[in-house]
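note to self — DONT lose this again. spent like an hour looking for the file last time. sequence + predicted structure for the chain T wanted, 507 res
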Amino acid sequence: MTQGLTEIASRPSAPPTTAPPQREAFEREFDLDSNLSERAARRSLLGEVLDWLLAPLFLLWPMSIAITYVAAQDLANVPYDLNLVNALEVLTQQIEVENGHATFKLSAPARLALRPRENDGVFWKVIAPAGELLGGDAELPTPFKAEAQQFDTIYYKNQIVRGFDVRFAYTWRTTGLREAGPVLVVAAESVERRVALANDIIKGVIIPQFSVLPIAALLIWFGLSRGIAPINALQKRLRARKPDDLSSIDGRNVPVEIEPLVTAMNELLARLASHILAQQRFVADAAHQLKTPLAGLRTQAELGLRGTPPGETLSSLNQIIAGTVRATRLIDQLLLMARAENPDNVQVTSVDVRALTQQQTQQWVDRAIAAQIDLGFEAADHPILIKGQALLLAELLNNLIDNSLRYTPAMGHVTVSVSQIAHQVIIAVEDTGQGIPLVDRERVFDRFYRVLGTKVDGSGLGLAIVRQIATQHGASLNILDPLQNGLPKVGTRIEVRFEQLTSERDV
């Protein structure tokens, strides 16, 4: 053991263990799933505004299609109904009265105007007052009753003829001689061209909507995203703040709608800063008031030992001294915990963590010799730089070494090492103690928590302080099983991983 203590810096650097326990990986995955579920349960401001804007748009779109369809049908009927009216006028002009009777003679130009191609155009029929056919298509049906009609009024009606939809226009026209009576004039044509025109109108209106609607939705989303950009910018500014930065948020560049929120946050930050300042003053005052009488009590007990007191008195005085030492240590730890939680303006510098770790390890050599524990140090021969506060890092190391020495039995080993992997610096303290059960590896970092079954004195604050300092430095903290020849062995390995500095300019 003595050789290991005297050659504290001579051990080769051991390869660190990088694989975290399966339980920690499972817990991190479970926490991630829980966070995703909670995030999914929360409402999104952007999503809600998009719902209120796009939902009516997509609901009104089918209504627009229906209205367009009806309007297209009416628009398609107008020119073709006008064509039927013109056909009725042409047919009426071909009616003459001879010897008191109506006659119908269709000229060639009129026939060409009504039906420019065979089986294409207007079909017609002219019926005398007595009911005889004067001209036209005899097979063309008469879908009406004369008693219900008025003279010189044009009527329309759709009817299926031989399986085809046909549009009729008809009217009763008086001839030159009133005594001859009214003549029925009928014009009809297929509705196919009307339907084709209506479909063309619908296609011309609806098809552009299929491209316009997604573009409109995309523009709405883009506009809203730009609208909430100041909120995202404010979020980034808040995330970029240091944990101890409680200064007011600059609200000059935020939108008017967000200004009340920024004002409320500034008021909260002001109250929080005042509360933290009062807490720091209270802790400092309380520590000062407690340490002074404890120091006096220890001094009086040490003076009492000089007078060679009897056995019981000697034991009581030794217990008083030991109790005051523990109480003073507890007060110092509480002060350090308060400082780590609420860091002051101590300047962050470039720290040679190798030299710092070796220096702090050497301070525990006497304690290790007294406990019959082999304390060793392993690191490379060159400086290893990280960004941090040397005072807090020294306390982190002291708590880790103290914790290992407390729980390592006589003739055991404690190894402090500093190594580098990629761009990370790893400080590890490994011992051959009884180890920490998996179920307790997360809870041992809680304040005042002690693993059941241990008979070692302690306040339960050491590892809590370690985690607080590691968090302040942006480092990760893991409890692993030490390895020997690639297999786990009895004991505990605590690793603290920092980001490495390439040069002092990075501070």
